[in-house]
Design goal:
Length: 385
């Protein structure tokens, strides 16, 4: 290949960065124990509540999203208590790994990769299998491109006053309509490198009043991810320990941008891109991996018959500089994933699909050039009319 080759991210995290946010970070020289930073933190916390769509506290941690996930175990569950975990992909399995690390008994509800979790089984377990301190689930399983019905689950868990519902919405926030307060989502986990369009390094946890009361009863050890300690500090515009100040500055700018365009428009953009991608995949003779409940955050597409998805991923990167994601774990070589969360628009998608059409032909899956792009354009026209 000759000429200019730009790298472009189409992965479900990290995602393309909002340049205005990065420019703000480059000029930031704030000290975290000054009034100017406290004001920035207070404004950022308020913007985060808007992004979440909640009146609850939203805590900020300098970590990846997994740090806040760990905190959601350590702060809620005491040794000897049980939890209920839904798993249908690599990130659902992370809840099980965290429970094991803390010596917590986890009752598992499973669905095959690519399928949504069965809500009726959660109901059965909650009604007949004794007490659970918390229920853990993903809003969107980004390893498979499936979304789970957390609204229905919230109605179930609300009937159990000593049980919290914890939702990993790291790729769900900003891509899916979520109502933490109305649906009874007691702890909702987020991360900076997804729909928020800033680099990795910040994690978030919204915490309901019900969850705070349960946290008061927890006997598990915690130090850095102590939710009550952070609640007290962040109410004053501070963090308990040194924060990633430049990331907080970037986040403040990105949240200001989201308030300007509207949270609902950010979600609609992801939904439009996801539907357009699904229709494009079908037009190209490809099968979708998600069965029944596809997510807006990303689209998981099965590799063409007889081909390894790694060949598609490699060709896209080498030929076009387009970085898409392979499958994870047992799905590696079987699927590839295109993201729609954050700083993407329709022209980004049209370009990615045009590159994918050429790639498919190069790796041995013959398809008509323009057919996928045309299908995506038709969805764009229908949803933007």
């Amino acid at each position: 290949m000759t000429g200019i080759l730009k790298e472009r991210l189409f992965t479900p995290g990290p995602t393309p960065l909002l340049m205005e946010a990065q420019a703000r970070a480059l000029t930031a020289t704030l000290h975290h124990r000054t009034e100017s930073f406290r004001q920035l933190m207070r404004e950022t916390s308020e913007h985060l509540r808007y992004f979440y769509g909640t009146k609850n506290d939203v805590l900020i941690f300098s970590s990846s999203g997994t740090g806040a996930m760990e905190g959601a175990i350590a702060n809620l569950v005491s040794p000897g208590e049980r939890i209920l975990v839904g798993t249908a992909g690599k990130f659902g399995e992370r809840w099980l790994d965290l429970a094991k690390a803390f010596g917590i008994e986890a009752v598992k509800i499973e669905a095959p990769y690519g399928c949504p979790l069965p809500m009726e089984e959660f109901d059965r377990q909650l009604r007949s299998n004794g007490a659970f301190r918390a229920v853990y689930i993903q809003a969107t399983e980004s390893s498979t491109g499936v979304s789970h019905d957390v609204q229905t689950l919230g109605r179930m868990v609300r009937n159990h006053p000593e049980t919290a519902l914890v939702v990993d919405a790291i790729t769900g926030l900003g891509t899916t309509a979520l109502d933490p307060d109305g649906w009874g989502l007691d702890v909702v986990i987020g991360g900076s490198q997804k729909a928020l369009m800033v680099p990795p390094g910040l994690a978030f946890a919204s915490v309901s009043e019900k969850a705070w009361k349960l946290i008061e009863k927890s006997k598990s050890p915690r130090y850095y991810f102590d939710f009550a300690k952070e609640r007290k500090s962040q109410a004053k515009g501070e963090t308990s320990y040194t924060p990633a100040t430049t990331l907080v500055v970037s986040l403040h700018a990105a949240l200001g941008y989201i308030r300007q365009i509207g949270r609902e428009n950010l979600i609609e953009n992801a939904a439009m891109l996801a539907q357009a991608t699904r229709e494009a995949a079908r037009a190209l003779g490809l099968k979708l991996f998600a069965q029944g409940s596809p997510a807006n955050a990303l689209t998981a597409i099965c590799a063409p018959e007889g081909l390894d998805s790694g060949a598609v991923v490699k060709e896209m990167r080498q030929r076009f500089g387009a970085i898409i994601a392979n499958g994870q774990g047992t799905m590696k070589g079987k699927i590839f994933r295109l993201a729609h969360l954050g700083y993407y628009d329709a022209p980004d998608l049209f370009a990615a699909l045009a590159a994918l059409e050429i790639t498919l032909n190069k790796v041995g899956h013959q398809c008509e050039l323009g057919s996928g792009v045309r299908a995506a354009q038709e969805i764009y026209l229908k949803r933007s009319a």
